[in-house]
Amino acid sequence: MDSIFSHQSVDGMDGAAEGPPPATTVEITVPRDVADAFAGFTDGIHLWWPVSLTHFGEGTHPEFTDGELFEEDASGRTRLWAAVLGSPSANELQLAWHHRGNPDLSTGVSISFTSTESGTRLTLVQDGWAAGETGVEQRAAAPDWEAALFSYRRFMGGA
Questions:
Q1: Model's pTM, two decimal places?
Q2: Are 47 and 38 in contact (CB under 8 A)?
């Protein structure tokens, strides 16, 4: 049966969806070894994360500190983006991503770093969306991972 609504929301899903949205997966390759790729992602995030994907905008400084990823603006205001889960290694980083700064809307973000002949393949998977309208809201509040990782790849010397 066709929907009576004239439009659909995020990714073609309507708010009445029973199941959760599918996982988001983005893969890129950077011309660096795994250790450098991981360090560029974590220690250098303030140098490559797009300002357009921040909460505070211009002057924002995203960083990983004490098991958290957050942004801080020039006046010292902060916004929590994610909690680091477990012990990160140069091969993998697991995050509980807090959509709109809300831990109740968290989803899982897994970032793996795999050595290849041409450098390091980074695979980012975001999943754990809630079912129905909440999942649609989570998905809408998620970062544009393709834009973020495009910026990261350029920062790391990739095309």
A1: 0.85
A2: no
